[in-house]
Amino acid sequence: MKRRDFIKATGTITLAAGAYLTVLKPSANAKEEKDWLNGYDWSKHYWGFGIDCTKCIGCGSCVRACKEENDVPKDPYHFRCWVERYVYLKGEEKPKVDSPNGGYDGFPEKYKKEEVLKAFFVPKLCNQCAVPACVQVCPVGATYQTKDGVVLVDEDYCIGCRYCIEACPFGARYMNDETGCADKCTWCYHRITKGLKPVCVEACPVEARIFGDLKDKDSDISKFVEKHRVSKLKPDMGCEARVEYNGIDSEVR
Amino acid sequence: MSWTARVFLVVLIIFIVYGAVKSLTKPKSLGVFGHYRAANISKQLSKETKFVGRETCKACHEQEYNDLCSEEPSSAHRNLQCEACHGLGVAHPKEGVALSCGCKIPDVTKQCMYCHEMLPSRPKSMPQITLKGPEAHFPGMACTTCHTNTHKPAFYK
Fold this sequence. Notes:
The structure holds 2 protein chains of 2 kinds.
Chain A: H1 3-28, E1 47-52, H2 61-69, E2 82-89, E3 96-98, E4 116-124, H3 133-137, E5 143-145, E6 151-153, H4 163-167, E7 174-176, E8 181-183, H5 189-192, H6 199-203, E9 209-213, H7 220-227, E10 243-246
Chain B: H1 3-25, H2 38-45, H3 54-58, H4 62-68, H5 82-86, H6 92-95, H7 108-116
């Protein structure tokens, strides 16, 4: 290489590197972190959810309210929140599980009182796992975990590949055919960040659903966890589900 | 120019083009908090809340609200939210449109039976009736015939 060529090459590199940096840099720090949060401080909260199955009456108020609040398709296949019925019949080992229309229309009288050994309702929703499988599998980064412990879906960025629906061990996700995106329960993120409770908690007539901030020791959820012997679903999956259930069997998964 | 410099130049051009395309197509808020768009959080936070809560209903429906929250022993519905039965009310006060269930619930008996139908899975503490079989509780009659005020339902022994 001649000296002239060497100088030419170094000059081009310097210029190009300069151009590259000037194009990229402003977009990285255009807005500060707090500007994206609309004045909400998510480092001060860590939301928690509890379900008391000894209280649930299976009326389906939560399902009906959730579908309206969150624009969930009103067909019997798409749910952010649904209720399952577990019935142990006398002489049978495994329970009968059903969830007609997710509990939207309540539960029909199906079993005779004399045949039933024990029975209960289990409301289900997204567990907002601490180690979410759905976030890990998303190929485009359209689903993510917030600092206050909720997993959200970016509807503008989701490509509708359904990996997350397959990955979720709880069946909490569904394909919203109207938007072409995966969707799921967000614990009503738009409500809880305004100091309100999720709509299913508000609509529950028997206070079987408990919601609050785990960082606040006087919140409903902290007291619920303190007072009851709670368990979480599928601990063996390793995704660390966060909904605390009271009064369920090991058959509930 | 030697051949090494030419190769170097080609690699450099690829690098610059990559950088330019990336900076043009990458969403601005990607990477502020992590591997996702921070702009989506702003969108999630600004979504409209539709469930208004019974304190809002009180402004116009004070009589019903007082019946519902009554401390009388017969008022077992005092912990209920209006919208649990009547449907969500976000557009209702602003535009005068009906609630999603209608302010008048179309089938009151059906609404009552969501919670009060006899089911073995229900906790025993819940008052339950059946409309079928030998233990039927006045079949064929609307609940409101006897329990006239559903906000403050009376119980007969």
